C-alpha cells in the first residue's frame, strides 16, 4: 500500500483509470511509472505528477474484496490458484530486484559474481570463468540488477564485431534490455535515424559497440565523452597491454584504460583466458580494475593484497561448479582431434572451379562499381573458398543459397570490414576463431554479381 496518494512508493498497488497498477521506480521524479497488475512491460504508462495536483488523474490505494462462499471452487481449482500465486511471487520477493525481470532461471553459481558486484561501491570486476559456464548471463544479471536499483542509467557492451549480434539477442530475450549495435556496418544507418545535433553514443540508451570501431582515433574521444556509466568488456584478454607491440591491442588497452579513469564508472571485464602466460599482460588487465593491482607481485602477495584482489576477481573451471549447492550442471564434453584428409577427384575439381570463379570475381571489377561492391566481391571470394575447403556440406549449403539481385546501391548494407575479417581470416594472437559459416559475407558480395555469375 502507498503512504501518500500523490507520491506512491515503488512496489505499491494503486487504482487508476479503473485498473490496478504496480508502481515502478522512475528516473524522473515528476513522473509516476505504472505497470498493469495483469499486464506486461509493453503496457507501462507514466502519470505526470502535476495532473494529480490538478485532479485530472487520480491514484488511490487498490482494495481487493475478500472472497465469499460463492467464490469457493473445487480442490483442483484451489491448487491451480496456489501454484499460480507461487510462480508469480517466486522471484518478486527475493533479495535481487532483477529476478522479476528475467526470462531465465540462473544457476546458483551464476549468482556469485552478482553478490560480489553488490558488495563493491563501484563495480570493478574481472569474471574469468571457463568457457560455457555463463559469463554472458553473469554479466547480464549484474547489468539488470544495477538498472533496476537505479544505480546506473545506461550500459555499453564492448566486444569483438562478430559477437555484437549475439550480445544484442541475449540482452533482449533474457534480460529485457534493448540495445543497438554500433559497428562499421550499422553506424551510418543509426546516425541517419537520430535528430540533428545528437551523437550516436549519447542518443541511444544502451549500446553494443564493436571494440575495433570504438578504438579508432576518430571515434575514441567521442565514445569516452559520451560513455555510459556501466561498461561490459567481453573478450577482455584482447585489451591487455601487449609486449608484442601490436597496434590493435595497444589501441584497445588505451580505450579501456581511458574508460576506467573515471573512478565512479562501473566496469566489468569478461574473459575465459585472462592469463596468457605473460604476467605483465595479466597485471595490465588487473590494473584496469584498480591501478594498484598493476604493481602486484603475484607470487608474493600479502594477506591484505590477496583479500582485496579476491573481491575484484573470480575464476572457476567447470569442475568447480559442476556440483554446486546440491545442483548439478551437466556440461558437455568436447573431444578435440585433428585428422589429415585428401581431396577426392570430384572434390578437387569443385575446389578448382570455385577458386577460378573467385579469381574472376576479383579480376572483373570495374571502375563503375562502388567501393562497397568491389570490396564486397573481394570478401565474398575469400568466403566462398573458405566454405568449400571447410567441408563438402558447407560448400553445398553455401553454393545452393539463392542469389538475390539488387541494382540499387542505396539498398546495399554498409560495408563492415571488421565483421568480415573476423569471419574470413584465421584468428591471430589470443583471439578465437569464429566457428560459423560466413554467409553474411557471401550474401553481401552477391549483390554485385552479374547474370553470368548467378
The end-to-end span amounts to: 67 Å
Q: Using the alpha-carbon principal axes, give the shape.
A: globular
Q: How many E strands? A: 14
Helix fraction by DSSP (H/I, runs of at least 4): 25-40%
Cα gyration radius (Å): 27 Å
Q: Give the mean pLDDT.
A: 82
Uncertain regions spanning at least 5 consecutive residues:
1-5, 404-413, 428-433
- Name the beta content range: 5-15%
| Main structural class | alpha/beta
The largest sheet is: 7 strands, parallel
**Total helical elements:** 18
Side by side, the strands of the main sheet go 8-9-7-10-11-6-12
Write the layout of secondary structure elements.
Elements: E1 13-16, E2 19-24, E3 31-36, E4 45-48, H1 49-53, E5 60-61, H2 75-89, H3 112-118, E6 124-127, H4 135-149, E7 155-159, H5 164-175, E8 180-182, H6 187-192, H7 200-203, E9 207-210, H8 211-214, H9 217-225, E10 230-233, H10 247-260, E11 266-270, H11 279-287, H12 303-310, E12 313-314, H13 318-321, E13 323-324, E14 327-328, H14 345-363, H15 371-390, H16 392-399, H17 417-424, H18 439-446
Parallel strand pairs: 6-11, 6-12, 7-9, 7-10, 8-9, 10-11
Antiparallel strand pairs: 1-2, 1-5, 2-3, 3-4, 13-14
Helix pairs in contact: 3-4, 4-5, 14-15, 15-16, 15-17, 15-18
Tell me briefly what this model is.
This protein has 454 residues and is of the alpha/beta class. It contains 18 helices and 14 strands.
Describe the structure.
The protein is an alpha/beta fold and 454 residues long. Helix content is 39%, strand content 12%. It has 18 helices and 14 strands. It has helices at residues 49-53, 75-89, 112-118, 135-149, 164-175, 187-192, 200-203, 211-214, 217-225, 247-260, 279-287, 303-310, 318-321, 345-363, 371-390, 392-399, 417-424, 439-446; strands at 13-16, 19-24, 31-36, 45-48, 60-61, 124-127, 155-159, 180-182, 207-210, 230-233, 266-270, 313-314, 323-324, 327-328. The strands form three sheets. A seven-stranded parallel β-sheet has the order 8-9-7-10-11-6-12, with helices on both faces. Strands 4-3-2-1-5 form a five-stranded antiparallel β-sheet. The chain has a two-stranded antiparallel sheet with strand order 13-14. α4 packs across α5 and α14 (345-363) packs antiparallel against α15. The radius of gyration is 27 Å and the shape is globular. The N and C termini lie far apart (67 Å).
Amino acid at each position: 500500500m502507498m503512504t501518500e496518494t500523490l507520491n506512491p512508493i515503488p512496489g505499491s498497488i494503486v487504482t487508476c483509470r479503473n485498473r490496478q497498477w504496480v508502481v515502478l521506480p522512475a528516473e524522473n521524479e515528476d513522473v509516476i511509472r505504472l505497470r498493469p497488475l495483469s499486464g506486461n512491460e509493453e503496457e507501462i504508462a507514466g502519470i505526470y505528477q502535476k495532473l494529480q495536483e490538478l485532479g485530472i488523474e487520480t491514484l488511490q490505494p487498490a482494495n481487493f474484496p475478500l472472497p465469499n462462499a460463492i467464490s469457493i471452487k473445487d480442490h483442483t481449482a484451489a491448487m491451480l490458484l496456489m501454484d499460480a500465486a507461487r510462480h508469480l511471487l517466486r522471484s518478486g520477493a527475493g533479495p535481487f530486484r532483477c529476478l522479476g525481470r528475467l526470462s531465465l532461471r540462473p544457476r546458483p553459481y551464476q549468482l556469485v559474481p552478482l553478490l560480489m558486484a553488490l558488495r563493491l561501491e563501484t563495480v570493478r570486476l574481472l569474471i574469468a570463468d571457463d568457457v560455457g559456464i555463463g559469463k554472458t548471463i553473469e554479466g547480464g544479471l549484474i547489468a539488470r540488477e544495477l538498472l533496476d536499483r537505479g544505480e546506473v542509467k545506461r550500459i555499453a557492451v564492448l566486444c569483438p564485431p562478430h559477437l555484437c549480434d549475439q550480445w544484442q539477442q541475449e540482452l533482449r530475450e533474457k534480460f529485457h534490455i534493448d540495445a543497438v549495435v554500433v559497428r562499421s556496418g550499422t553506424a551510418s544507418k543509426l546516425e541517419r535515424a537520430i535528430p540533428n545535433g545528437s551523437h550516436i553514443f549519447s542518443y541511444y540508451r544502451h549500446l553494443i559497440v564493436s571494440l575495433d570501431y570504438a578504438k579508432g582515433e576518430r571515434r575514441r574521444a567521442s565514445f569516452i565523452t559520451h560513455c555510459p556509466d556501466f561498461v561490459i568488456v567481453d573478450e577482455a584478454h584482447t585489451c591487455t597491454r601487449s609486449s608484442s607491440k601490436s597496434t590493435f591491442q595497444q589501441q584497445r588497452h588505451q580505450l579501456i584504460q581511458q574508460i576506467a579513469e573515471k573512478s565512479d564508472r562501473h566496469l566489468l571485464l569478461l574473459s575465459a583466458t585472462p592469463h596468457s602466460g605473460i604476467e605483465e599482460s595479466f597485471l595490465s588487465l588487473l590494473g584496469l580494475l584498480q591501478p594498484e593491482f598493476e604493481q602486484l607481485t603475484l607470487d608474493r602477495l600479502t594477506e591484505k593484497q590477496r583479500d582485496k584482489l579476491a573481491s575484484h576477481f573470480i575464476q572457476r573451471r567447470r569442475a568447480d561448479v559442476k556440483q554446486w549447492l546440491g545442483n548439478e550442471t551437466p556440461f558437455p564434453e568436447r573431444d578435440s582431434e585433428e585428422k589429415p584428409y585428401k581431396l577426392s577427384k570430384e572434390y578437387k575439381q569443385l575446389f578448382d572451379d570455385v577458386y577460378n570463379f573467385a579469381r574472376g570475381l576479383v579480376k572483373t571489377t570495374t571502375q563503375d562499381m562502388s567501393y562497397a561492391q568491389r570490396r564486397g566481391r573481394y570478401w565474398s571470394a575469400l568466403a566462398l573458398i573458405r566454405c568449400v575447403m571447410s567441408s563438402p556440406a558447407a560448400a553445398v549449403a553455401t553454393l545452393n543459397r539463392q542469389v538475390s539481385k539488387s541494382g540499387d546501391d542505396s539498398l546495399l548494407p554498409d560495408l563492415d570490414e571488421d565483421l568480415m575479417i573476423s569471419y574470413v581470416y584465421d584468428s591471430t594472437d589470443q583471439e578465437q576463431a569464429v566457428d560459423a559459416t560466413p554467409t553474411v559475407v557471401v550474401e553481401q558480395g552477391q549483390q554485385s554479381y552479374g547474370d553470368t555469375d548467378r
